Amino acid sequence: MTTFSTTLPGGTWTLGDLTVTRVGYGAMQLAGPGVMGPPADRDGALAVLREAVELGITHVDTAEAYGPHVTNQLIREALHPYPSSLHVVTKVGATRDAAGGWPPARSRDDLRRAVDENLDSLGLDVLDVVNLRMGDATGPQPGSLATELETLVDLQRQGLVRHLGVSNVTREQVAEARAIAPIVCVQNMYNLAVRHDDELVDELAAAGIAYVPFFPLGGFSPLQSAALTAVAERLGSTAMSVALAWLLHRSPNILLIPGTRSVAHLRENVAGAGLALSDADLASLDGIGRADVLAGPR
Ligand SMILES: NC(=O)c1ccc[n+]([C@@H]2O[C@H](COP(=O)([O-])OP(=O)(O)OC[C@H]3O[C@@H](n4cnc5c(N)ncnc54)[C@H](OP(=O)(O)O)[C@@H]3O)[C@@H](O)[C@H]2O)c1
C-alpha cells in the first residue's frame, strides 16, 4: 500500500489498498459539448489535468464513454506515465449512441470490451478501480446486478481490475453487490440539493466504503439556492466552494470528484473544499435538500 501525506482538504481515504486524496477530480466534462467529441480547447483540457496532479490530487474519475474515448485519451496524454500515487477510477456499463445518448452496455462481451478499451486508452496493465454503472440516464433502476458484477469479478480474478465499485444504484443493489464481492466505492448522484442517498451515505461510512457523489456541484445545472448564496456571502466565498466543503463535512467517507474545464475553477474548488463551516452554516445548508425535508421521487 502506498502511504503519503497530503495538505489537501479532508486528507486521504483508502480504496481497498489504494490511498487517495478525498479531494479528487472528475474528468467527464473535458470532452466536447454533451460529453461528445474533442474539447474546444485541447491544451486547456491537458493543463487542467496536469494542474490537478500538481495540486496533489491523486484520484481522477473517468469513463471510456466520455467522448467516447476522448477523456481517457486526454488523461493518458497529460499524465502518462502516471505518478505511483495517482489512481484513475473508471466505469463500465454504458456506451454512447450517435445522438449522444448513454445506452446500457452490460452484456458479458460489452463489459469485457469496456475493460479492454479502458486499459488500452489509459495505457495501463490493470485498472485500479472499476465502477459498474447500472440504471440509466434518469437514475438508478430496480433489478439485480448479479450477472454484471460477477462478470467484473471474473475480470478481477484475471488480474485486469484491482478493485470494484458500483454506480447509479439503489440501496438494495448496493447490498446485493456487497454480498457478491468486496465493494470499495459507490458513485451516485448526490449534492446539497439532492439527498436521496442520505441513509446510504451513513450506512457505507459505517462499513468503511467510500461514497463518491457525482454532480457534486449540480452537474449540467449548477447548484442554486438562496441559503447557499447567503452562507457563501457570509464567508466571503463562493457557492461552489461552500457546496464542496459541505460534502467533506457531511461524512468522512465522501470523496469529491468535481468537474471543471478551467484551471482557475480547479484551484478554487481545491481551496474551497477546505472552508471551515460553523454549526450555524451547516444547519442552514442542511435544510436545502435533506431527504426528510424534501421528500420526492428521484
Ligand atoms: N457515475 C455516473 O453515472 C456519473 C454521471 C455523471 C458524472 N459522473 C462523474 O462525476 C464527475 C463530476 O460531474 P460533473 O463534472 O458533470 O458535474 P459537477 O462537478 O457537479 O459540475 C461541473 C460543472 O460545474 C462548473 N464548475 C466547476 N467548478 C466551478 C467553479 N469553481 N465555479 C463555477 N463553476 C464551476 C463546471 O464548469 P467549468 O468547466 O466552467 O468550471 C461544470 O459545468 C464527472 O466528471 C464524472 O467523472 C459520473
From TrEMBL:
GO terms for molecular function: oxidoreductase activity. Keywords: Oxidoreductase. Residues 23-288 form the NADP-dependent oxidoreductase domain. It comes from the Bacteria. One of its GO terms (cellular component) is cytoplasm. InterPro entries: AKR, Aldo-Keto_reductase, NAD(P)_OxRdtase_dom_sf, NADP_OxRdtase_dom. NCBIfam families: PRK10376.1. This is Aldo/keto reductase family oxidoreductase.
